[in-house]
Specification:
The protein has 108 residues and is mainly alpha-helical. The chain has one domain (3-101). The protein has 4 helices and no strands. Helix 2 runs antiparallel to helix 3 (48-72). It is elongated. The model has no long low-confidence stretch (mean pLDDT 95).
Amino acid sequence: MSQDIEKARNLTQIIYFLYAASIIIGITAIVAIIINHVKRDEVTGTWLESHFRWQIRTFWYSLLWGVIGGVTSIIGVGIIIWGVAAIWAIYRIVKGMLNFYDNKPMYA
């Protein structure tokens, strides 16, 4: 494996850990999404590009559903939306990490 791919691999793993940590410490997701966007060009054309896309989509859709859950919590539905969104985000983090450790792209 080339040194650039190994660095990108390590970075991708760190980002997955930051997203996993965000379940308890929410601010780590902000750090992760910033890294995703800043370093995205470095993984273009590699199998890790699909993981970056997966991570970025997980963040933005989780944020969207979190906001929708917050707005609708006034009528009680928001709690359910937050619960479903949390389970979905955990699923995406776990699925992404499993594919990552198997050296597989996300959308194969």
